[in-house]
Design a protein that fits this description.
CATH topology: Sufe protein. Chain: A
Number of strands: 4
Strand order of the largest sheet: 3-2-1-4
Order of helices and strands: HEEEHHHHE
CATH class: Alpha Beta
CATH architecture: Alpha-Beta Complex
Number of helices: 5
Shape: globular
Bound molecules: zinc ion
Distance between the termini: 34 Å
């Protein structure tokens, strides 16, 4: 299990150093801003939806390693998902980073690589960094014009 944990940490490190899908999306159908004042992370998430399915996802912004890696991995995972599947993943992810460290998060299997972030449970301040991209994505999908805050 500790090997798996190391592997997961490596995945996060890799995505924070070389973020995927870091670009503007002029033809995005949904987008939103997210701000985590606690850490100073600012993200802009773009999503392109066609026939109820996410065909492209990207992000821009500045953030710490955790928020950047989370946005990078989220945009990778969302591509090809339906909006319903995206919402489920959002719920599982939220659950994985907020389940008390003494318990096992219930849907780690469904999360795959994203389960790497369950480690932030031991660092409560980092939970908002890990979830910022997801909150922002959800706001984009709901087409809220209000900037998202993790407060
Ligand atoms: Zn952060």
């Amino acid at each position: 299990m500790s090997d798996l944990r190391d592997l997961y940490q490596e995945v996060i490190l890799d995505h924070s150093k070389k973020p995927r899908n870091y670009r503007d999306m002029p033809d995005a159908t949904h987008q939103a801003d997210g701000h985590n004042r606690l850490c100073g992370d600012k993200l802009h998430v773009y999503i392109k939806v066609a026939d109820g399915r996410i065909v492209d996802a990207s992000f821009k912004g500045v953030g710490c390693a955790i928020s950047t890696a989370s946005a990078s991995m989220m945009t990778d995972e969302l591509r090809g998902k339906t909006l319903e599947e995206a919402r489920r993943l959002y719920n599982f992810f939220h659950e994985a980073v907020t389940t008390p460290p003494t318990e096992d998060p219930p849907h780690l299997e469904e999360l795959g690589k994203l389960g790497a972030f369950s480690g932030v449970r031991e660092f409560p301040v980092r939970v908002k960094c890990a979830t910022l991209a997801w909150h922002t994505m959800q706001a984009a999908v709901e087409k809220s014009d209000e900037p998202v805050s993790t407060e």
